[in-house]
Amino acid sequence: MSRRCRCLWMAALALWLGAALSGAVRAEVCVSDAAAREVCLDAPARRIVALSPGVTELLFAAGAGERLVGAVSFSDYPPAARALPRVGSYDRLDLEALLALAPDLVVAWAGGNPREQVDRLSALGLPVFFSDAGDFAAIAASLERLGALAGSEAAGRAAATRLRGQVAELRARYADAAPVPVFYQVWERPLMTVNGEHWISRALALCGGENLFAGEAPLVPRIGVEAVLARDPEVIVTGGMGKADSTWLMAWREFPELTAVRRDNLFFVDPDLVQRATPRLVQGTRALCAHLETARERR
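The structure corresponding to this sequence follows.
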């Protein structure tokens, strides 16, 4: 090969490598979100703001923790999330604080953030991905999509694969478990529960639990004490207002006619493990399954 040919070949190779490297950095990323929208980025996000504690946790689980620059109040898991700058609460965003962080991606909670505020962010040109994982399958898919948006695809896929395997193991273990009628209490005043579409109800179903309020229309319906008494749950479960607050359960002891009270089937679970749609829901589901097994033994 002549010197001229070698030079031309080297120049062509350099141009090809430059284009390839540029493409690796600037490769477009497109995923669909919970609002059935296609969200595209020119390159993986480097400055992400999360608009719910659950979304924050999902991003860390998907390997995108280092790219998070802001989150809402109560974003406390993993511990590193506590140091993130705050942009208000999930139901009242501080748009000025959020914009000051110059994010290149905002991950919103489709079921909880004020839509008008999120729409304003979109109007200002910020890419917004809506997350709303209603069951284990959706949580796994969210991990993969968030990993893709953040350039941490391998971590997102690994977390999703691990989650699917854990759920399959639980499903197989409790496939033939005897059904247990359950009332899950989300709040005390007003008294609130979950319907059959909520991930807590689906976690209970995985263990053989039958949500007595599955047929209610709202995702988180308000009910009366009389409705609970009429349906006579065999088990009552609550997360209380904190990791060690079981006072809500004690109130049910005023109704000794309830099967759950008579058999001492009043159970507490860590609310962080069941009231956020994240990979830790598997831990919460294991705790729920253990409580239902105890109830079966007390029959």
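The CA atoms of residues 7 and 84 lie 51 Å apart.
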